[in-house]
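Sharing in case it's useful to others searching the archive later.

Someone asked me privately for the predicted structure of DUF3991 domain-containing protein, so I'm posting the question and my answer publicly. Question first, with the sequence:
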Amino acid sequence: MAHLEEDIIERAKNTDMIALLESEEGFSFKSTYGEREFKCIEHNSLVVNGNRRRWYWNSRQVGGNNAIDYLVKIRGMNFRDAVLHLVGDREQTAYMPIRKAVTENVSVSKPVRFVLPEQAHFPDGRRNYSNIIAYLNKGRGIDMNIINTLIASGQIYQGVQYNGLHIVGYNDEGMAFYRFNDNRDWVDYRLQTLRASPTATDTYQAEAVSSKYVDNILLKDNTKIFKNNLVVSTGKNAQGEISYAAFRIASTNYRFRGEVAGSDKASGFLIESEGINDCVYVFESFIDAMSHANLYNIKYGNKDAWKLHNRLALGGTADTALMELLKRKPNIRNICLCLDNDSAGRTAAKEIAGKLRSMGYINIYERYPNEKDYNDELKKVKSIINEQAEENEQ
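And my answer, the predicted structure tokens:
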């Protein structure tokens, strides 16, 4: 096993705990005592020190000096995996700015605007889904009928990400506009009338450059801008408007994921049942929700069996989206908590189950996967099926 260099370990130790917990767990924070510490809104016993590295979870009586300690003690990773998880095989900078912790007794006049990532297109203008189809089908083992259904409904799509830039909005023709994260005097910014998504009605003014302008920069030999393809999953609010989006890079080679800034955690990724159903399966990620749907098809030998039940992805372990769903769908009485089969997932599931029981819900089930998560289980099941098929052919 290769030795981890000290600078790599030091980089991992310096990970911003607030940013990590917001992007990967879906938590949000408010500062107290003049930003000397940050308290988690979803789990008020979880506190991060003002240096944004040390942390302590009082209800679990566990703490640490940095993000490595969190991954080891809470998620159950070994030291090496924790370091590599934090630094990645290649460093990537998210174009979605991290949400700032809310300061108590201070009104925030300009909340972060929620802007959807740009839809990827082929040069001829057609929408491009090729990368996410390859990633979800070949890399994650999810069947095409599930992928195509969710693409058709707009719940998943192939997004575009540029390192060093962030999206500002869309014009009336649906063209995306960007700004650079750093100061570049030569950039020809123009004042634009934009909206947060191609279908949004509200408009605002911002100085930005078009995606065509950015693509022209990419053609220069000395550019340091790179274009990546993302799998974007979306969630809608009670009015049917997209108000939440999670993303991950369409590659199994390294990790790069998070939530779009300004996302409403109450609007989780929801696969609704066809017809009325009183059961919901609850997951941490949309990949796991899709994987469970696929396993359901395999179990019942029916490619449409997955459409019979509701499946909700929380975007982490916070229960905000579940509580909102139960308000919107009061007919739901059976709740299956299918969080990850690790320390963090099991602890969160038990906390959510306790909360639901105090609210009067009776039929609450904890359904952990046989592997670490439901995607790992799907890949394991498909591997066994393929091996059996090969044996039968011999």
